[in-house]
Amino acid sequence: MAGNSFGTIFRYTSWGESHGPAIGCVVDGVPPRLALTEADIQGFLDKRRPGQSRFTTQRQEPDQVKILSGTFEGLTTGTPISLFIENEDARSKDYAAIKDQYRPGHADYTYDAKYGIRDYRGGGRSSARETAPRVAAGGVARKVLGEGIRIRGALVQMGPHKIDRAAWDWDAVNDNPFWCPDRQMAQTWEGFLDGLRKSGNSTGAVIEIVAEGVPAGWGDPIYGKLDADLAAAMMGINAVKAVEIGAGFDAAALTGSENADEMRMRDGKVAFLSNNAGGILGGISTGQEIVLRFAVKPTSSILIPRRSVDRNGNEIEVSTKGRHDPCVGIRAVPVGEAMMAVVLADHMLRHRAQCG
Prior knowledge:
Number of helices: 7
Helix content: 25-40%
Number of strands: 18
Largest sheet: 5 strands, antiparallel
Order of helices and strands: EEEHEEEEHHEEHEHEHEEEEEEEH
Strand order of the largest sheet: 1-2-3-7-4
Shape: globular
Radius of gyration: 21 Å
């Protein structure tokens, strides 16, 4: 089905389930003669890997990627690149109790309503486990983009607790388990999440992704807008419920004079005095930083009983045991970075195809 593939020229198709023998993806459209090895991808998978702190699921997956096709002597050949990741720590028995139950907030009911069958083991295809192949595809996309484009992400809100943007420090992002750019807020989140974890509850988060070095002119007007494709990419991530570009929803409270990103000439080039547009105008990049945020809902699998129904129409209460992220938004940071890379690589190749 087309719903398992994403992109136009740079296009990947992911496959696999949470508790299947393996997961992976096939990446097509990669130009030939690019240097690519597993090591170019592995570092990004290591950022997303579960079990790295007490604040994420304790499922222990090494997530070692294998390139099965599409390279020869360390270079891409222009043919489909197949990426393979084994599942090594699935515990299907943890889900036996809910095989006929619908967890509130989860995709159990909708998958059953659509297909008449569902893989209840860890959520099957709807599990966040499926995001590992996305990160692998994103690693390939970064090789296509080259070193001139830098993509970084950070967690900017956990539950009701927002960072202080005046304290933003990119160097702090890798110094705490939350990818938080505000060192003081990272400490607040630690206590907040410990309390939720011990009570069997969960919380949501907001992630910000920034891309630097994107030239002006990428994106197609009307139905191929760069921001529309970015929004689709982020909304396709598990548990994401909202996406905003630049000023986003706050733009509704601005006047036209406040929202307009004024321009001047600097060293013979157009320079913007602000970036409320988030680096995109009319669906086409402006040359500024591309800035977006997406909101991730609280993890649906929690210990606290919730009212629901089962496949037989009985009204029940559901409490989900097993290993789950108290805030799935933490591991969504490298996933958001990957999807930004995938979209930008696609639009780079689309721009090259039309405009040379």
